[in-house]
Write a structure and sequence with these properties.
heterodimer; A: 245 residues; alpha+beta; 7-stranded antiparallel beta sheet; 3-stranded antiparallel beta sheet; 8 helices; 10 strands; elongated; B: 151 residues; 7 strands; 22% helix; globular
Chain lengths: 245, 151
């Protein structure tokens, strides 16, 4: 219905015609769309005309694009993006406890030398440009790039849906490798704990970057298969950043 | 000069103990009980035991092979009598040999507990391996079994 209205205003019966729905059902859908502010209806004579509210459509499109970027970054968030108002404690109690495991390796070749690629991980200003929030530059709450140090990034995946990416550095060999553990928490529910190793290998004048992650995924919130997609996404962003400079 | 390398591997070790999940869980959660089956004998001067989400555990000392080991744990997830998830690194003679994430699950089985330990590790510079970690874990879980066999 939104698609049809984005082509131009229509009456309720015009909207209903191509759909396999009764008029009352269409009217009910329209009431929901009106309540959200996305659609405005107006009685013109005896006919009710519906049209899209352009400002709301732009906002909805923006939100949908951001949400899709987050899904590429973190994978499908499943039941976590539950209807607002659901009690968090109840959510946790209702969640069936389970543990799943997933391992992946992602490899990238960059034209930049290992020291430069390494700096993109070690320097908080550079890292924020390709890591973390996929929709804007991410500023870490804590950034201690040293053995035993912590990196903490928090924010919102969608309005009212918080995330926390909490990393601890275990091993750092300058220009060569980084080994760390990290957890992902979404809406106060821990979704995973992983160990990751990043190796920077010279390849001609450039770098072969190898990222291996082994993760424990809790309570069926995130799908282990989708964590690889998130890593590929940020490493492509890193590639774009290295190529641009 | 150390030949740099990283290898990766996972293993699962399981045991069924004739003790209820609460008792098996307590063997991990209570520092006095844990000291009876885990790690280097005796309390080292730098040892830490802070069993809570975000807490740290540190245990160091000489093991049966005469080498000095340290074991540095950070607890990520604790569900009493159900599961523990933690990350840790190990050093041997002051060199870091591995970084791992471990999950311990406690499942009731009749009057006992089916306990499952799964570890994912990054093994550094050829100093450790998934086979050695699994052997070490097997040995520890046998010691836990001996502790739980006591009345």
């Amino acid at each position: 219905m939104v698609e049809r209205l984005s082509q131009g205003p229509a009456s309720v019966s015009e909207l209903a015609r191509p759909l396999a729905m009764t008029l009352p059902a269409v009217a009910q859908h329209l009431r929901v769309l009106e309540a959200s502010g996305l659609v405005v209806t107006e009685k013109v004579g005896r006919v009710r005309i519906c049209r899209i509210e352009p400002k709301m459509l732009a906002a909805a499109q923006g939100w949908i694009a951001e949400r899709m970027a987050w899904e590429r970054r973190f994978g499908k968030l499943g039941e976590l993006l539950a209807a607002p108002g659901m009690d968090k404690q109840k959510e946790r109690e209702m969640t069936e406890r389970s543990v799943a495991h997933g391992v992946f390796t992602v490899v990238r070749s960059y034209d930049a030398a290992p020291a430069r690629v390494f700096a993109a991980w070690a320097d908080p200003k550079i890292k924020g440009k390709w890591y973390g929030d996929p929709n804007k530059e991410s500023v870490a709450d804590v950034f201690e790039f040293r053995v035993g140090g912590r990196e903490l990034r928090t924010g919102e995946v969608a309005p009212g849906q918080s995330y926390s990416l909490d990393t601890r550095y275990y091993d750092i060999v300058e220009g060569e490798r980084i080994v760390y553990a990290y957890e992902v928490v979404i809406n106060d529910a821990r979704t995973s704990v992983s160990v990751a190793a990043v190796e920077f290998k010279p390849q001609g004048k450039g770098t072969r970057l190898i990222v291996t992650e082994q993760g424990t995924f809790l309570d069926g919130i995130e799908n282990p298969e989708e964590r690889r997609g998130g890593a590929e996404f940020v490493l492509d962003r890193l590639g774009q950043l290295l190529a641009a400079a | 000069m150390t030949e740099r390398s990283v290898s990766h591997g996972s293993f699962t070790v399981e045991r069924t103990y004739p003790a209820l999940p609460a008792r098996v869980f307590a063997a991990w959660a209570d520092p006095e009980i844990k000291a009876r089956w885990f790690g280097a004998a005796g309390k080292g001067p730098d040892d830490i035991f802070d069993f809570r989400v975000g807490g740290r555990e540190y245990n160091a000392g000489k093991m049966g092979d005469g080498k000095a080991y340290s074991f540095d744990v950070r607890y990520y997830d604790i569900i009493p009598d159900n599961r523990i998830v933690y990350a840790y690194d190990m050093t041997m003679d002051q060199q870091r040999i591995s970084v791992s994430v471990a999950t311990v699950e406690f499942r009731p089985e009749g009057k006992g507990t089916h306990m499952i330990v799964t570890e994912h590790g990054a093994f550094l510079d050829g100093l450790d391996s998934v086979e050695q970690r699994q052997k070490g874990t097997d040995w520890l879980l046998d010691r836990l079994g001996e502790e739980l066999a006591k009345p």
